[in-house]
Amino acid sequence: MTYQLTAPLLDACVLGVVAGEDVYGYTLTQRVMDVVDISESTLYPVLRRLQKSGLLTTYDRPYQGRNRRYYSITSAGSEQLSFFRSEWEAYKDKVNMLINPAPEKTDDTIGGLK
């Protein structure tokens, strides 16, 4: 991918995945990595930071004799995700106006007359 993700946008992506359902760490990283060019070693510190900030919680569940760590979004995480979503819409719209500007109307083209 050509575009770099900033930390807040990466946080928003992670929170968005977890908001849909509690998810096992490996599955979460794979879902994000399928869309964004990022390494697994970059994503786990993000998960720890979001957990430390109170936006995610974790719990372990046994699976084939081992524990898997699952991530769950908190109410604070849901609020933060809502904020990220509104900010993303505004940002995306502004960037889109720069990349795909609407043609400016001139006196020559007003009313479809040339």
- The helix content is 55-70%
Q: CATH fold name, please?
A: Arc Repressor Mutant, subunit A
Strand line-up across the major sheet = 1-3-2
Q: Please indicate the count of domains.
A: 1
- The chain-level mean pLDDT equals 89
Please identify the structural class as seen in this structure.
Answer: alpha+beta
Q: What is the CATH domain class?
A: Mainly Alpha
Largest sheet: 3 strands, antiparallel
Strand content: 15-25%
CATH superfamily: Winged helix-like DNA-binding domain superfamily/Winged helix DNA-binding domain
Low-pLDDT residue intervals, each spanning 5 or more residues? none
The Cα radius of gyration reads 20 Å
Helix count from the secondary structure assignment: 4
Question: Would you write up a description of this structure?
Answer:
The chain is of the alpha+beta class. It has one domain (7-99): Arc Repressor Mutant, subunit A. Helices cover 55% and strands 16% of the residues. It has helices at residues 7-20, 25-35, 40-52, 75-99; strands at residues 23-24, 56-63, 66-73. It has a 3-stranded antiparallel β-sheet with strand order 1-3-2. A hairpin with a 2-residue loop joins strand 2 and strand 3. Helix 1 crosses helix 2 (25-35) and helix 1 (7-20) crosses helix 4 (75-99). The longest helix is centred in the C-terminal third of the chain and has 25 residues, at 75-99. The N and C termini lie far apart (42 Å). The relative contact order is 0.15.
Question: What is the gist of this entry?
Answer:
This protein has 114 residues and is of the alpha+beta class. The protein has four helices and three strands. It has a single domain, classed as Arc Repressor Mutant, subunit A.
